[in-house]
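Field reference: sequence -> structure
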Amino acid sequence: MHDARRALLLACAIGIAAAPASARAQSALDRTPNLGGAWVGRAGTIQFNFLHRFNVSDPPLRKVTATPTFLLGAGLPGHTMVAAQYASNSLVAGADVPNELELAGRWAALRQEAGAPLDVALQAAYNTAAASPDAEVTLARSFGTVRLLGAARVLGRGYDRDTVRYAVGGGAVVRLGRHVALAGDVVTLLDRREGEAVAWSAALQLAIPYTPHTLSLHATNTNTATLQGSSVGLEDGQGKGITRWGFEFTIPLTLSRYIGGGAPVAAEPPPG
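Structure field:
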């Protein structure tokens, strides 16, 4: 817990130092907790997201289990980005391998804001905990205040086993105004096994006024935010689902703020 507190303080300090930032920073109001959407960032923007989830065991122990995930990404030219996600309490490869690192690259093949009928993004990743090459195709489209998302995933060595696994998911974000949205998603492995539940989440997504930061307050039954971690729901030894409560704080750092040109003050929602 002390490590989680220090990480949270560090995230807040970076967030204060980062503002103002780009209006193209990643917004929690455009995605759901288990689906990253088709976002790739703006060239010259560094993205730091701090995700923290926890649950409390049944009495009499009432043990608090905390699961942090950190994302560090960089937007590149050509509507691409590279990113790394690190989780220090992962279950992807079992309890004996708690450190999970996912290295990923994403390309936005189609963008609705550029006139395409929908957003389409392709992602290739490597999960070090499972020694697995993974991939995802993401579809998303906005209809006024509603944004629909879908994803299909291939896990080359799913959950540290010599087996290819497949997962599909869908979700929606409903904006209630400029700074508030409701979001939810469902993701499932196509060949679920014992102890592997359907993954789900429900969230209240908030944009912090006059800043580039967004905040997600959510409940979910997943552990980490990597492709493998967000594709399976958790169950205890008796087949009972485990609900984890969490938050995610997004922090963009715009290099143009320091290398000429300046940057807009606050992140605003995209038109439509």
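Note: The chain has one helix and twelve strands.
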